């Protein structure tokens, strides 16, 4: 069986790197999509121990699942607003919805009237990404009639950067200026603009709270810059068998891999049903005993053939597993080979593997007595 290793010490080290970078602003933890596929519960628990008190998920259902695992002083934001009928579930999860549109505001204000108290919420404004958040005229309408937020306790005004991972993009400064302008029209509240990339754009982008996701999990926060984060994830797949194939022999479905020389082909017990992109057919590689073994032929549902011709036989015999993600191949490298981003590689991984959690050492666990 394949083995996914999650290093919580690296996760916490990444959190601390970001927290130190943005101080005195605080760092939240974005744990949507089940903690980017790694397990929202274990990720949030480790981040909490490192001092994180603000968590973001995308869906009400994610908040419902995560809340019982979190201490009461952890704030849990729901990014995608309020789907009709989810008000009670949000209140039960003690969640803070991000209100993205006037309908969200009306729903939450009405829920507050029914609950007989002001309910906490974040408001998102669209500072230029055209994805989620109030349009400038909608913000102006609230500025003109603040009673629209009656029944709501505004705890955070936020927006999201379209190009936070591109430090050279002029869009970042433009969004920051637009965000500052829109936030100033709303009642005073803490502000949040930066994702992982934005956390490294400098102090003007930090506001009160940054919202890193991918960088916590070891992904590079910014394009074209050295990755300051520690790798959190490693993935190994079992080598089921290997064989020598003469020149001219096809490998895998469609026989799409044929070479003019003799090859040695090993077969891994891992495939697209495990979450390895089929786009990596005849692209990318695994590593066997540290040696690059290119993927040969199409990625199958449950298996991948790799070319281990360059691996010494004695090493091959002694190596039960191949590295798919690890010291030789980062999540960003896999993503580049597959024409996608590390986010998609992580969130695509299924649960058809054993999971090994490297627990926090006492040193990294701030909640342990010293
Ligand atoms: C996903 C998300 C984040 C985290 O983004 P990363 O690029 O993973 O750091 C932050 N804010 C919002 C609104 C998001 O949707």
UniProtKB/TrEMBL annotation:
Binding, substrate: 131, 301
Enzyme Commission designation: 5.1.1.1
Signal peptide positions on this chain: none
UniProt xrefs under CDD domains: PLPDE_III_AR
Keyword Isomerase: yes
Annotated Gene3D superfamilies: Alanine racemase, Lyase, Ornithine Decarboxylase, Chain A, domain 1
Essential cofactor(s): pyridoxal 5'-phosphate
Keywords: Isomerase, Pyridoxal phosphate
Alanine racemase C-terminal domain span: 232-358
NCBIfam families recorded: alr
Protein name (database record): Alanine racemase
InterPro entries (UniProt xref): Ala_racemase, Ala_racemase/Decarboxylase_C, Ala_racemase_C, Ala_racemase_N, Ala_racemase_pyridoxalP-BS, PLP-binding_barrel
Family affiliation: Belongs to the alanine racemase family.
Residues the record marks as active site: 32, 253
Function, in words: Catalyzes the interconversion of L-alanine and D-alanine. May also act on other amino acids.
In-chain residues carrying the UniProt-annotated modification N6-(pyridoxal phosphate)lysine: 32
Top-rank EC class of the record's enzyme: isomerase
Matching Pfam families: Ala_racemase_C, Ala_racemase_N
Reactions mediated catalytically: L-alanine = D-alanine
Alphabetical list of SUPFAM superfamilies matching this protein: Alanine racemase C-terminal domain-like, PLP-binding barrel
This protein's pathway: Amino-acid biosynthesis; D-alanine biosynthesis; D-alanine from L-alanine: step 1/1
Protein's UniProt keywords contain Isomerase: yes
